[in-house]
Specification:
It is a peripheral membrane protein. The protein is an alpha/beta fold and 517 residues long. It has 3 domains: 8-92 and 161-250, Rossmann fold; 254-339 and 424-517, Rossmann fold; 350-423, no CATH class.
């Protein structure tokens, strides 16, 4: 498919940060009207390469040709003005502004020098209609959920009539119907001659929509191939830097298929939890040393139940018991004192503090235990940080490196370490591997496995059925804010889970019986 004059040609790109070599001789070539996958482990250099292209970072070596012209953009706005739009995984719009204002920010339609609100609202509605989305564009963006905010970001990108659209994990917050709508938009862009760089980790999606793939590892471009001619297992092997035999022997997850050594003792019991509109009788039980998966479709109440258990959101009815004692958490601080920890779904918004160091982020929850008379012991803090950087294999230039400079997988490890240093009895993990690469994903799954083996209880939310099936002793299924099924280890299958999500426990039990027959 390679053409003589590609739309984008990046060659010999290099970039270093203090103590870290981010890119070495990296390459990326994208054709006109092509959907091009960019893949690699976290820390492979994908984000750095994109930021250099769009002017967020300066390059230290190499050349960039775009539409036949040598370019060196000084800012994302300059790249945008020259035909390159970027849709980031983490929504970077303004929540208090309206949907229409976010779509047309910086290029608002005007009439006689004044904002033409009627035209802006009409055009915003038309753009969203292309995405099969009908919402009130005059409402603040923050009044809509993350999935809709992601669609608004996509609408903004396509409004620029760009030559190249970069999509960084665009499906991470979308359900299946919304993903298919996005793919239709990508196909439209392709038919119009617009190129798309698709950064993603979900292999099925890459193979469904992309033409070619560029694989990166350790800051270098390993290979560019036609995706249809590249088997999935070979792609994973190249991303990990392993042979095919290694991947086929170990599989693609870090979970062991065996049950964990969970005890009969119930650690957590949440019964008939209710909260207006979001929880309508949700229940879950976790034993000591058990990994319980929490499954459900978008809007089923998984995150809402986790936040209610952790005291982050109030509950109107229901009962929570920890180690047989009834509790009522008024805040996360109460839950932490009771031995609970929560790694939130959105690590950028609810987890890391980007401009603080790895050390400060890791020890944030432990500061009260490290202080005497209100003064934090730097020595104890440093010992704790060194221990968990080593124990979890966190890749960083040092404890003082700003956490924002770490890859997504390593940021997630820092958040896990934040709770592990408190020695919790229960860890609630909301999408622990969302938006991270295959290698880091396997490392985090293996870490969860090891923690459960040592007696830590885990309540794990995941949108990936395979992750739940392989990593859980038991799976609780939610639908419309209610618990509709609880599947034991021997009953768990992808079909049974999907049946439970659609029709409840009776359908899952019937399907399990049919499979046994």
């Amino acid at each position: 498919m390679a053409q003589a004059n590609p739309l984008l040609q990046m060659e010999h790109i290099s970039k270093t940060f203090p103590g870290v070599v981010a890119l070495v001789d990296a390459q990326l070539s994208v054709e006109r009207g092509e959907v091009h996958a960019l893949v690699g482990q976290n820390g492979a250099g994908k984000s750095t390469l994109i930021k250099i292209l769009t002017g967020a970072y300066s390059r230290e070596g190499g050349s960039i040709l775009f539409a036949g012209q040598a370019v060196n953009f000084q800012s994302p706005r300059q790249a945008q003005d020259n035909g390159i739009s970027t849709i980031y995984q983490e929504i970077n719009l303004i929540p208090y502004r309206s949907v229409a204002e976010n779509i047309f920010m910086g290029k608002e339609p005007r009439r006689w020098g004044l904002l033409d609100w009627r035209k802006m609202h009409a055009e915003a509605s038309n753009l969203l209609a292309r995405l099969s989305l009908s919402i009130d564009v005059m409402q603040p963006l923050m009044s809509y959920n993350i999935a809709i905010q992601q669609m608004v970001a996509i609408a903004r990108a396509i409004s620029f009539e760009s030559k190249l659209v970069i999509m960084d994990e665009p499906t991470s917050s979308l359900n299946e119907r919304e993903v298919e709508t996005l793919f239709e938009i990508i196909r439209q862009l392709k038919a119009e001659g617009v190129a798309v760089v698709f950064v993603g980790h979900r292999l099925d999606e890459l193979y469904a929509i992309c033409d070619r793939v560029t694989i990166m590892r350790d800051g270098q471009t390993i290979e560019t191939r036609e995706l249809a001619a590249l088997p999935k297992v070979e792609l994973v092997a190249k991303m990990l830097g392993k042979t095919l035999g290694d991947v086929q022997r170990t599989g693609q997850t870090g979970f062991d298929a065996n049950l964990h050594h969970s005890e009969q003792q119930v650690l957590l019991q949440a019964r008939d939890i209710r909260r207006e509109r979001v929880l309508q009788g949700a229940s879950v039980e976790v034993h000591v040393g058990e990994v319980v998966g929490l499954a459900g479709l978008l809007g089923s109440g998984r995150t809402e139940l986790a936040r209610a258990i952790f005291g982050a959101d109030p509950i109107e009815e229901g009962q929570i018991q920890v180690s047989g004692q009834s509790v009522k958490f008024h805040s996360p601080a109460d839950a932490i004192r009771a031995g609970l920890g929560l790694c939130a779904e959105d690590r950028k918004a609810d987890g890391i503090i980007p401009y603080l160091s790895v050390r400060e982020n890791l020890t944030l929850a432990a500061l009260p235990t490290l202080a005497r008379y209100g003064i934090v012991s730097h020595q104890k803090q440093q010992e704790l940080v060194d221990t968990f950087i080593r124990r979890l294999g966190i890749k960083t230039a040092g404890p003082e490196q700003p956490i924002r400079e770490l890859s997504g997988g390593n940021q997630q490890k820092v958040l896990l370490a934040r709770w592990l240093c408190l020695n919790p009895s229960l860890l609630i993990l909301d999408e622990p591997t969302r938006g991270i690469d295959v290698g880091a994903k396997a490392e985090i799954q293996a870490l969860i496995e090891a923690l459960a083996e040592k007696g830590l209880s885990v309540l794990m939310i995941s949108s990936e059925l395979e992750e739940l099936i392989e990593g859980s002793d038991r799976i609780v299924v939610l639908r419309d804010g209610q618990t509709v099924a609880s599947l034991q280890h021997g009953e768990i299958s992808q079909d049974a889970l999907m049946a439970a999500m659609a029709q409840g426990n009776e359908a899952a039990e019937l399907l399990t019986q049919q499979e046994e027959v």
